[in-house]
Amino acid sequence: MIVELFDTSLLIYLLDMVGVIACAIAATTLAMYKRFDLFGGILVSMVNAIGGGTIRDLMLDRHPLFWMMDLNYVIVISITSILCQMFFHRHQHIDAALKFFDAIGLAAFSVIGLTVALSLDAHPAIAIMMAVMTSIAGGIMRDMICNEIPLVLQKEIYISASILGSALYLVLDKFGTADWIKQSLALATIFGVRMMAVRFDWHLPSIQLRQSNRSS
Fold it and tell me: Which of 21, 37, 194, 205 has its CA 20 to 30 A from that of 214?
């Protein structure tokens, strides 16, 4: 009953802000580890937090860009990055913090990307692609700026978690499930799969080229 009092668009907006904050923390943490300065940390945070959504909107021809219409995104990212640089120290566990906040951003932005695409009547397959794009593109650009191999291009279970949660959302949508239930279950699935993979060291097999021994 309480959930019905909230407008769906408000829930999506709050979810978007959660993802933005999580990605800003993850990016700033990595930037501090790489010894970037104050503005370098903010820049990397911007790229990570709104990069995926920007590419998604460009691909869907959705204008103007969401963060240009609402400066709260820029303000929240900047404040989050500054606070993180003030109170987070480089000696803390960089890898664990990065993967935790990355998982939050992955879940939040996957659901955001999916719902945005569906609201524009995109085909379900395209909607899943937009969910993945929204959730990973910013992280890829962040890692490239920080001279790191992008996390999603390694053996990590990352993209598959986004696809699994998005597919669950679409299945629930076919049965007319309430929006908040679809969103909650998709979020929990994506975040849960990603953190389980981190906790139990699950990996996808890497591509290996077989070397053939040819005798002359």
Answer: 205
Torsion angle, alpha carbons of 83, 190, 91, 33, to 10: -70
What are the tokens at 13? Answer: 């907006």
- The region of weakest confidence among 88-102, 148-162, 165-179 is 88-102
Distance CA 106, CA 158 (A): 8
The angle at the Cα of 114, spanning 166 to 134, to the nearest 5 degrees, equals 105
CA separation, residue 133 to residues 2, 41, 113 (Å): 33, 23, 8
Output the pLDDT for position 89.
67
Contact 68, 152 (CB under 8 A): no
pTM of the model: 0.85
Angle at CA of residue 69, ends 78 and 29, nearest 5°: 20
Q: Which long-range contacts (CB under 8 A, 24 or more apart) does 203-206 make?
A: 203/155, 203/156, 203/157, 204/155, 204/156, 204/157, 204/160, 205/155, 206/155
